[in-house]
Amino acid sequence: QELGIRDIYWEGEQVNYKKDTSTFSLIKDPNKCVMCRRCETMCNEVQTCNVLSAVNRGFESFVGPAFNMDMADSSCTFCGQCVAVCPTAALTEMDNTTQVWNELVNPKKHVVVQIAPAVRVAIGEMFDMEPGTISTGKIVTALRKMGFDGVFDTNFGADLTIIEEATELIHRINHNGTLPMLTSCCPAWVKFFEHQFPDLLDIPSTCKSPQIMFGTIAKTYYAQKKNLKPENISVVSIMPCLAKKAEAKRPELTKDDHSNVDIVITTREFGRMMKSAGIDFANLPDSEFDKMMGESTGASIIFGTTGGVIEAATRTAYEWLTDEELEDVNFTQLRGLEGIREASVFIGEMELKIGIAHGLGNARKLLEDIQSGKSKFHAIEIMACPGGCIGGGGQPYHHGNMEILKKRQEALYVDDESRKKRKSHENKEIIQLYKEFIGEPYGEKAHELLHTHYVAREKI
Ligand code: SF4
Ligand code: SF4
Ligand code: SF4
Predict the structure, then answer these.
(1) What residues are labeled active site?
(2) Phi, psi angle pair for 265, to nearest 5°
(3) Which of 33, 182, 288, 307 is most exposed, with the fewest beta carbons within 10 Å of its own?
(4) What would the CATH number be for the domain defined by 164-206+296-450?
(5) What are residue 374's phi and psi, to 5 degrees?
(6) 384 Cα nearest atom in ligand 2
(7) Interval between CA 47 and ligand 2 midpoint (Å)
(8) pLDDT, tens digit, 9 for 90 and up, residues 242-289
(9) Ligand 3 pocket member 186 (CB < 6 A)
């Protein structure tokens, strides 16, 4: 990636294996594998997914799932962390950039784009900017130059997620529902528990992820307001994530044969697209998101880091449970980069016990505690990637440099602090959306549009 090497030119004895293009998220090309086995360590020891191991022996050996089955048939979560550590591009993201260009030149399509919170603090690294540079305004300008008809923020979807998730948590607490409630906005985490803990499918929140909530609202409310047919709207997501590519193709997240989200590209693919279009990103002026689905609060920005989703939910749940204004919205006890963290937040008389894990190996420990009845938490946030989405498998390569992750994380908190509105329920466009279209949070229409279900899968 860094050196622009996509093909191997020199000759000699070479193996010739079939590329694995069976998934929507990643490509495995064993011909480029040098058997360093970093991916194996990441998958088995950090993520505890046990998908990758050496297949065959000697010159014939390469890394793949058991029996060299297709990645799509394995227990792969599509977290992309193996891609993040592969030094030779034997593992890469599935490239969907051509599809995006094709949509942009299709006169029949109204193409809207959303960008995830973690993208804005990392994309600058591909243009020699300092890690943690907040580039939101430049991203919006670049996307308009590329020809998108609507430029929006996944943070709008994140604020919407909090309205539903906080309501669901309060509902579970008040009605003796299943606790702890687990966050559900990370699709690699969702696939992990479907394979590894199929007996616990009633524990995660039923909320769709922010990218899918955004896509759903774009194909319904936005379509209605703009007088467009949903099938003529194309929703493109720019995500730090490989798992979001596969998430967008889940059958339960499509409606009337239309995906809620049509194409997902990663931060790296977005950077490549800008480079191929000759966009001088570092010197672009700033622009604002479009209206209707472009407003966001500080709470939604911190979705991009471990601890951010549960902090955002706590800000809203606090005010709704106590009917009091939350003076200090900074729940610093929920922040940090330790793999497993726990904290208590007093909401009136109630002590809300919160657990946080990032990295699937850490998540497994909290899940095993739930299985054995030892868990003491009311709510648990889990993100599959180390650091959360700031360390996503589709972000500019950070080569394990924690300083880069820290700078990306700090930038999200700085962006949050710079906002006047820092609680999701203060988002005016979200308030309008419920008033005009959805009705009650966690109500009938909200369930139909914004909630989902999970599927028990085999562990292979
Ligand atoms: S990290 Fe890449 S090069 Fe190393 S073993 Fe895995 S696939 Fe092969
Ligand atoms: S994407 Fe994640 S789960 Fe799948 S092989 Fe790579 S590290 Fe393992
Ligand atoms: S932590 Fe974020 S980037 Fe990583 S798999 Fe989950 S949603 Fe994707």
Answers:
(1) 165, 168, 185, 205, 244, 247, 252, 389
(2) -120, 155
(3) 288
(4) 3.40.950.10
(5) -95, -10
(6) 2
(7) 8
(8) 999 999 999 998 877 678 999 999 999 999 999 999 999 999 999 999
(9) yes
Nearest CA to ligand 2 atom 7: 43
Residues of the chain with CATH 3.40.950.10: 164-206+296-450
**Ligand 1 atom index nearest CA of 37:** 5
Identify the pLDDT of residue 1: 67
* 158 C-beta closer than 6 A to ligand 3: no
CATH topology of domain 97-155+211-283: Rossmann fold (3.40.50)
- Percent of the chain past pLDDT 90, that is, above it, reads 90
Mean pLDDT over each residue of the chain, to the nearest integer: 95
- Alpha carbons 381 and 319: distance in angstroms, whole number: 20
Q: Is the pLDDT of residue 21 over 70?
A: yes
Number of the ligand 3 atom closest to the C-alpha atom of 209 = 7
The CATH code of domain 26-93 reads 3.30.70.20
- Short-list 238, 240, 210, 388, CA closest to 300: 210
Q: What pLDDT sits at residue 207?
A: 97
Q: What residues does CATH 3.30.70.20 cover in the chain?
A: 26-93
| CA atoms of 79 and 141, how far apart (whole Å) | 29
Pocket of ligand 3 contains residue 304 by CB under 6 Å? no
List Cβ<8 Å contacts ≥24 apart for 253-258.
253/208, 253/212, 253/452, 255/216, 255/219, 256/230, 258/219, 258/230, 258/231
ipTM confidence score = 0.99
Of 224 and 16, the structure prediction assigns the larger pLDDT to 224
